[in-house]
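Collaborator request log, item 7. Partner lab (contact: R.S.) asked for a structural prediction of DC-UbP/UBTD2 N-terminal domain-containing protein to inform their binding assays.
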Amino acid sequence: MGSCGSSHVKPNRTGKKIIRKPKPWKHPQPITRSQLMQLREEFWDTAPHYGGKKEIWDALRAAAEADLELAQVIVDSAGIIAQNTDMTICYDESGTKYELPKYVLSEPRNMIRFC
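Returned to partner:
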């Protein structure tokens, strides 16, 4: 006998969005890996000055630099609410908004690669 439809429900469903890589994107101009890394460093160095908590910015950076499984753990542990699954817009538990550019989350399609 058993309950109708119970096998279709995932037991550890939390209602939180699962983190994913951003959709492919294109930088306005082709850039090298070193230029991309410089853009990322500049963003992370200045991001806390625009508001929010330093510990949330630190968690977002750690998540952005981690593989997807670890990123999910970091976001969940820090109490970060991802509005978008690609983490471009997030909130902390007090409702403060954090916006992340795609260039800190993934590589552009038009990155110059050296052989």
